[in-house]
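Two proteins follow. First one:
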Amino acid sequence: MEISRYKKYQSHGDGQFDIDDFKSIGDNVIFEQGVLVFHPESITIGNNVYIGHNTILKGYYKNEMLIGDHTWIGQGCFFHSAGGILIGKAVGIGPMVKILTSSHSEDELSKPVMSGELEFKAVKIEDGCDIGIDSVILPGISVGEGSIIGASSVVTRDVPSYCVVAGVPAQILRNRS
């Protein structure tokens, strides 16, 4: 397998930010020590949002990351919003959760996967959800209002409202209603 030569690219920066850099930011937003933010100009954060230590908010030059009011984000999370991320209001996101919105296509077997075109798919987490520690939400997923994602789950398909899901891949365990 031959790996083509890559052009040299500039860094995306050091992740340091000023409040004025954001597209929009509400009142009482807490950034704990070690939070890194890339492309804050594409990130909107509502009121009363907590962002835990060492979380990485990776905005992108296109699409947006929107974090709703009263949302709590635990330490060590990684959100990559190349395809867009919408997090509703009053969402609890446990430590070390990853939200991904892009992947590489698998065009040709003779090329490394990393050489494939990037495919972008938005992730939407509706109001009142709880995402368990160390879970992964893959590109294109919608998590319905009031749903619970169990710890260390990998969410590979949409989650209906008011459901409890868990596992790898996440499966519906029960309905909350």
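Second one, unrelated to the first:
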Amino acid sequence: MRYFEDFQPGEKLPLATYEVTREAIIAFAAEFDPQPFHLDEAAASRSMLGGLAASGWHTTAIFMRMMCDGWLHDTDAAGAGGVDETRWLRPVRPGDVLSGVSEVLEVKASRSRPGFGTVRFRHEVWNGAGEPVLRMLNPIAFRCRQTSAT
């Protein structure tokens, strides 16, 4: 189990890999982002995306799964107050196998909530060609080791 004290600036935590399927792209889009270029290959080929692509929101949800499976489930995370920045850099296509890393930018003990600290991350997800498809900046709160023991 990792606690707030265990994170160091510059540390890179690998995300789990994830294979994106055509069926998952269409299913997510049908429920949450029903734009034609996420649902229909012909419409997508006429769009600026140039072909069927996952919704940016789908890519972000996939990232969350990759982070949980990669390292977050092995921590005493206490949640996050939001995301400071999200950038969808390239389309995510059917068949892409995504990988990535979470880099620790800053660690800061909480003044208002003793026993907690915030770790600021830069997350980056790449497609199979090693091209970045998603970049996010966000702080995540973690319990301190002493707080978890009590």
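SUMMARY FIELD: DSSP finds five helices and seven strands in the chain. Residues 37 and 44 are 4 Å apart (CA to CA).
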